[in-house]
Amino acid sequence: EQSRALAGFADGSVSVLVGTHRLLSRDVNPYDLGLVIIDEEQRFGVGHKEQMKNLRESIDVLTLSATPIPRTMQMSLSGVRDMSLILTPPGDRRPVEVHVGEWDPDIVSGAIRRELARGGQVYYVSNRVHSIEDAVARVQAAAGEARVGVAHGQMSREELERVMEDFSAGELDVLVATTIIESGIDNPHTNTLVIEDAQRLGLAQMYQLKGRVGRSSVQAYAYFMFPDNVNLTEEAEARLTALDEHTELGSGMRIAMRDLEIRGAGSLLGAEQSGNMSAVGFDLFAQMLEQAVAATREGDAGAADGLPPALSDITVNLPGHTYLPEEYVPDTDERVLWYRKIASAATMEDVEAIEQDMLAKRPEMPAAARNLFAKARVKAFANEHHMSTVTVAGGKLIVEPVAVPRDKMVPIRRAGGRYLAEKRKLTLPTRYFKVEEGDALFGAVLDFLKELSSGEGE
Predict the structure, then answer these.
(1) 97-249 in CATH: which number?
(2) Could you tell me which residues are beta bridge partners of residue 391?
(3) Residue range 31-58: mean pLDDT, rounded
(4) Which of 26, 143, 191, 207 has the smallest CB count inside 10 Å?
(5) Average pLDDT, integer, range 22-38
(6) Range list for CATH 3.40.50.300 in the chain
(7) In a 3-state reduction of DSSP, which class is residue 123?
């Protein structure tokens, strides 16, 4: 059967070929491939998708997913790929109620018995085949009257088919299974999901599993549980928190965005999952990418020249320590995330919002971190008023391009400052500010720039 289908695909007599990862094999030779549709995209690795791109020089790719993987999300956000969202749920569909917490036999017993009492069925996910019988024993201890079946990928095809048919027919109450049920299963009678060892699963995986229940108008429940004797990693805690926070219908996009924050985007081109963003900085990388995409879409390499100056092109160099100390934000990934947010703050309001967010989570802000936000304010102000340079060199502040009103020139000249009107460049000795460095200097420079700008129209 496979040989006939592949032969038809190769000679053009078969127009559409539907298949699994088998379609990536070397013996699949399309006659005239124009479109690849990838359903459940999160099941395909980067290597798989690169293979598909290599099938033809120019090919259209449509990917479908309830939870896009971080790299796909990054491509969509940066404009490399187009994205459309289906946000309207089916009629009468209700959000799944989510419980996240330590494994508790009383909670599991209550969840299973409540579902059985209303004539429904339960998925119980334990993702280790070698200990799945222990999971069955835990279910039987929690609800002895339940009829329990087992499903996992190491069973024979006949065994698996028989169990799934019995479950669909209502002859089993609880299906103890691995994550093989995470996609393609549609059973409207199953409206309670219990996952043990949830900390081992990825965010997209858990969201997909949650989608196996609540597929009718009946209220569904999902329990994400972790052992009480296991210390959760920060990433695992962040994943479980994200699931707990985003429970409304159609929240896959926000889940994927959180996954992007937790895991990072990786390299956009090629099969590598980590790129060279750190060499140029995330803000510059994002700006370069935005300009390149805009230029490509215009069909002209010079089209990007018409864009406004990038935030990353603004130079702010004032004396003082500006960083997030390791003892203040110990986790490297979290520090990078804060740096990204601060670097992309284009307005004073953005900087203020980020600073308030950080203070709410970490109140005792050290001087170096305060300086970082003070510098970000200066950069945001420069961005809003189209200045490209605010820097101190050789004991002098240099600002350009800037308009200096006439009434401000007298005190500036008295302090030994110079203004070149044709270049719109201001040079001013730092003694004018009566402070040397750090938070006080950043604040004084910002106040000075505000004074200049307030008289721009005079």
Answers:
(1) 3.40.50.300
(2) 317, 398
(3) 77
(4) 26
(5) 87
(6) 2-78, 97-249
(7) strand
Phi (first) and psi of residue 71, to 5 degrees: -65, -40
Q: Could you tell me the sign of the dihedral formed by the alpha carbons of 59, 64, 67, 73, in that order? A: positive
- For the chain, residues classed under CATH 3.90.1150.50 are 314-454
Q: How far is CA 90 from CA 87, 183, 185, 214, 400, in A?
A: 10, 18, 17, 11, 56
> Taking the domain 2-78, which CATH number applies?
3.40.50.300
**Alpha carbons 340 and 364: distance in angstroms, whole number:** 21
Query: What is the distance in angstroms between the CA of the first residue and the CA of the last residue of the chain?
Result: 82
Lowest mean pLDDT among 13-27, 40-54, 361-375: 40-54
Q: What are the φ and ψ backbone dihedral angles of 176, each rounded to 5 degrees?
A: -90, 120
Please tell me the distance from the alpha carbon of residue 369 to that of residue 376, in angstroms, as a whole number.
11
Q: Determine the CATH number of domain 314-454.
A: 3.90.1150.50
Q: Are 32 and 218 in contact (CB under 8 A)?
A: no
* 443 close to 433: Cβ distance less than 8 angstroms: no
Residue 213: which residues within 8 A CB-CB, separation 6 or more?
96, 123, 190, 191, 192, 193, 220, 221, 222
Q: Which two tokens stand for residue 340?
A: 């990204």
Distance CA 123, CA 222 (A): 9
